[in-house]
Design a protein that fits this description.
The chain is of the alpha/beta class. Helices cover 47% and strands 16% of the residues. The site of NADP nicotinamide-adenine-dinucleotide phosphate has 20 residues, from helix 1.
Length: 282
């Protein structure tokens, strides 16, 4: 039995679908009945309701599981505490192995959500658990959050420079890699960076959208105070807003490029190109 946290999120659902295809028994950690329905549809064998911030909920959920796939909450101000508490819970529950869904370059202190993941990695390395750490780059799927604006207005509004280049990775490739790591032996003590095969700016992604899907759109730089206003009205708290602003500031002055060789080795095939992702999911 594999326990998956954050199971009803973007990452969790992709992983559940991938594991379901392999006939794997999974227990999804969710925090509402609505999420329970989503994980069941994605193929979870069972679900457990709980709050990631409560260690006792984590311990109860982990009892009887051989492996934990720990997906941390997104941009959570206490992500490091939650991760460390999950490690303690896994030890108390007698879990055999712990796979941690981290991020590419957790060493970057200027991005607090990366730095918090590094602290969890450190705690995991120092624990007596059998561990594996996956470090995915930004998902190609992130562009789908802007699909309506791009399709309707022909504009992709971004709060950082559209020239910043990243190595976007297909979340399906990440989920299939995680499945291989979970179902095969030999991965204990490994840290795997999982970057996509191309270095692309937002402008270059839109160029591909034009070529592949015949959708002509332009990128517009959104002023940070305008972005903050809309984030506040969408219900984001100031801690999360500050974390995201740090990430935008980082992208304004640095590329975020990785190497896809490790992903290719683990997947056993060339990773998905952005063009193929667009054809499949746009
Ligand atoms: N997106 C990327 O490009 C990317 C790339 C690399 C790594 N990552 C990392 O992957 C992780 C997951 O990202 P994601 O995009 O899958 O996020 P997501 O879609 O927001 O999923 C996170 C899930 O965790 C749940 N959750 C949050 N707080 C909880 C709590 N206290 N108790 C129980 N459940 C809780 C959320 O439920 P609610 O919806 O109810 O809050 C949601 O179902 C993040 O740590 C992120 O940094 C993301």
């Amino acid at each position: 039995m594999i326990l998956i946290t954050g199971a009803a999120g973007k990452t969790g659902l992709a992983l559940l679908r991938s594991l379901h295809k392999q006939g794997t028994q999974t227990r999804a950690f969710v925090r509402s009945k609505k999420q329970a329905k989503q994980v069941e549809e994605a193929g979870a064998s069972e679900f457990v309701l709980g709050n990631l911030e409560l260690e006792n909920d984590l311990i109860s959920a982990m009892r009887g599981a051989e492996t934990v796939y720990f997906i941390p909450p997104n941009i959570h101000p206490k992500e490091d505490e939650i991760g460390k508490s999950a490690i303690v819970a896994a030890l108390r529950a007698g879990v055999n192995s712990f796979v941690y869904h981290s991020v590419l370059y957790p060493q970057i202190e200027a991005m607090p959500h990366h730095w918090r993941k590094l602290r969890v990695e450190e705690a995991l390395i120092q624990s007596s658990l059998n561990f594996t750490i996956l470090q995915p780059a930004n998902y190609m799927q992130n562009i789908l959050a802007y699909r309506t604006g791009i399709n309707q207005d022909g504009v992709w509004r971004l709060p950082y420079t559209p020239e910043a280049r990243t190595s976007p990775v297909d979340l399906k490739d990440v989920a299939d890699t995680a499945t291989k790591v979970l179902l095969n032996s030999g991965h204990h003590g490994a840290i795997y960076p999982l970057a996509g095969p191309e270095l692309l700016s937002s402008i270059e992604m839109l160029d591909q959208l034009g070529t592949v899907m015949k959708i002509n759109a332009s990128v517009e730089r959104l002023g940070i105070s305008k972005w903050e206003e809309s984030a506040l009205s969408a219900g984001l708290d100031m801690q999360r807003i500050d974390t995201l602003k740090s990430m935008f500031a980082y992208y304004d002055s640095h590329d975020f490029s990785g190497n896809s060789k490790v992903l290719e080795m683990l997947l056993g095939k060339p990773p998905t190109l952005f063009e193929a992702f667009l054809k499949r999911e746009w």
